[in-house]
Structure formats: structure tokens, C-alpha cells
Amino acid sequence: MRNIRMMICYVGTAYHGFQRQNNARAVQNVIEDTLTQILGQQTLIAGCSRTDAGVHARQFCLSFRTHNPIPCGGLIRAMNSKLPGDIAVMGCEDAADDFHARYSCRGKEYEYLIHNADVRDPFLDNRALFYPYRMDTDRIGKAASFLEGRHDFTSFCGSDGMKEDNFRTVEYIRISSTDGMISVKIAADGFLYNMVRIIIGTLIEVNEGRMSPEDMPALLESKDRKLAGVTAPSHGLYLNKVFY
Amino acid sequence: MRNIRMMICYVGTAYHGFQRQNNARAVQNVIEDTLTQILGQQTLIAGCSRTDAGVHARQFCLSFRTHNPIPCGGLIRAMNSKLPGDIAVMGCEDAADDFHARYSCRGKEYEYLIHNADVRDPFLDNRALFYPYRMDTDRIGKAASFLEGRHDFTSFCGSDGMKEDNFRTVEYIRISSTDGMISVKIAADGFLYNMVRIIIGTLIEVNEGRMSPEDMPALLESKDRKLAGVTAPSHGLYLNKVFY
Q1: Do B88 and B112 fall within a single domain?
Q2: B224 vs A210, B157, B192, CA distance in Å?
């Protein structure tokens, strides 16, 4: 039995997230249906992450088992000729027998794009959060630096996602700005439900002066989701890299 | 009576071109409905160009007359709050009384994007022509240079667009290439129906060896649409600049 590791990329706008849904179109449904058709056998996949409706992925890893001997190059070509234009397979290889897209994942990098301009750009519709107000990247960068490291991120966890252990290690939060676009990249060994989007919503609160950067340690300490910012919209969020 | 000149920008994917349609959604319908609502009077606009279904515009000029004294800045804000996310107003000003978006236009620049990579990028779906074969930009550049200048472009005119005078002056055709993307910019004093898309289809024929650059003068001379390449898909085409 082969164990296949596949990298895909997708625009999330038309999908109700990655995870298989019974009554809505999810990326997983489309991939599994296409694989099942090509491989000639019912195929179920494991994904590296659930992503919410509207979230994009530049690098998303999945794994599955098959008896089919099709070479990886041929499988990539067959998939890309059948998949819709907003999903593509970027790579594929035979993996070690114990590889699993979700459980083997050591970390991920998400990117959140903020379209910071006076007038919105239609070509960035559904691809970045439009934010027409002045953004003080030094100020939000200072707030972000308090979130780096190992912390209990309960204050930054959506209510559906509570787990027993809410400690995560944020490797870095990197903020950069170019020509009307602000990028916030966050890498961690794992993410709680809505964690990136709540961090972004909180950084916006900091930018607008309703919180100060120095409030971050007490916010982490409070373990109270209601004290953090709102959950920023999904359409600015990209799963950017997965680490194994 | 004020004469207003307005610059808009749109992603053409969801529209049946710019020009008003009775049974389909066109950009003109959306703009006129929104203006009529804001200005409180039935408003009809003139656009600088028809664009085909799926064609995009980074700079599209339109003009209209109104008695409403609303300041241009307020009109921009009102429009952008009401328009769908794939259309935006970039600028607006009171124009001379004889200004007309179409008749005053002295020229335009179109850009055609070719996504030239082994694997298609979902984020470029509907935004560039995916072309996974080697592109010899020197060779197509040589062919393009024969099309610069003043010529009868009948061979490059779609059948619906025949006019009495098919002479046009192509100011330049500039081909550039960066990281998986080839850009072809074409500026002219006017364009025949489908002219840019037929030029692109012809350059692809030249790239693939079915025509040579040196065939271009005879192709122009023939005035025979059937001898040129196919009409390239609309989704790679952008109205990039309009000159007055």
C-alpha cells in the first residue's frame, strides 16, 4: 500500500473550508471525488489543517493511501486537468509509511493580508482585508512581539475550539508593508481555532488605540476571549507554509 | 448641467462585458443603477470602450451629465460603499462641457497576461491565460514589431467588428517577462473588435512555429481574418490605460 504526500494550493472563496461537508462544497470533497475518479477506488484523504470558509492556502499538505501504481507525475497532471481552476496540485511524492499530513506536521506559517489604501482595489476583493485607515506598523509590531514565544492562547481561541491544552509556541510574527499592502506572517507549532484571525482583530484594536501594546501580557494572562479583539474576516487569511 | 468624468476599475469575470445588456449583468448596468440611486435621477453613462465578457479594466473612463451638486469626493465614497467588491471608483472630476469618455479618447493601452509555468496557479485563475509551454519572447517580440505603426488591421478584426476604416496606429507592443508571467502591452489610437486577442493568438502561433515573424507583413496585407491566429481567451486581457 502506497502512502502518498501531496501539496495543493487553493483560493478559498468558493469553498466552505477544507474539511469535508455533507451539505456544502468543501475542498476535501472536491479532492476526494477527483482522486476517487482517477485512482478507480474510493479514496479518503487527511489534510494538514481545517481551514475556515473563505480562507486560502498557498501550501496545503494532504496524505492518502492507494494501491494504484500511477506515477506521481502522472497523478499531478491528471488531477490538474480535472480539478476546478481555483484548486491545483503543486507536488506529489511517495512518503514514508508513518507519514500523516496532520499528525506529522511540526508547524505552520499563516499570512494575513491587509489592503491598506484609500480606495479598495477590486482585484484584491476576497483576497485581503480592506482597511482604509492609517496603520502604525511599529505600534502593532510591538504588540505582536508580546505574543511571540510559548503562551496559553485561550484569549485568542474561538469558542468552538477549546482544547485541554491551549499552550502554543509562536515562533515569530513578522509584519511588513509594501505599496498599499500590509502582511502579517505568523508561524507556530500549532494554532487554536481562529487564533490568527483573533490576533489580527486584536492588532487592529491596538492600532486604533483601544488597546496598547503593553496590554498584551495581561490579555494572555486573563484567558478571556471577550477581552481580545474581534475575529478578523477569513478572506485575508492564507495558509502559507507547512513544516514537517 | 455638470459633465462628470469618472475613472473606474473592475474585475470582469462576473460580467458580460461593459456595455449595458438587457438579459445579462454588465458593468454599465451596475454603474448606472448605482448612480441613479445616489443622484436621485435616471443617469445614463458613456464608457470609453466596450469590453468583452471576462475582460478586466484597471483604468476605465466614463462620463455622464447630472444636475446633482454632490461634490466629487462624496460621490466616490458613496459609489464605493454601494458597488460590489469587484468594481471600484478610483477618481472623479468635473470635466469640460465637450468631454465625452468615448469620443474624446485619443488612445488606449491594453495588457494581456500569460501565466507561463509548469503548474497553474489558482490565484491567477480567470486573471491570466495559462500557457505551460516554453515561450520564446524574442521570437514573438520580432513578430510583434512588424505590427507596430499604422496598418490596416482587417486580418486582426473579429467578424462582428468590421468598420469602413480598419486602419489603426499601434504605438507600441511591449513584451516583458517576470517569474512565470509574460506581459504584452499594446497601445494604439484605437482597436478593432477582438484586435488584441487575435494579435495574442497570432503570437502564440508564431511561438509554436506555425507562423514565422516574417509572415506578419503578408498577413496584414492579406486582410484575411482566417489567416491570423485564434482569438485568445478574454480572461487574460486588461484595459490598462486610457489616454485623453
Answers
A1: no
A2: 68, 9, 14
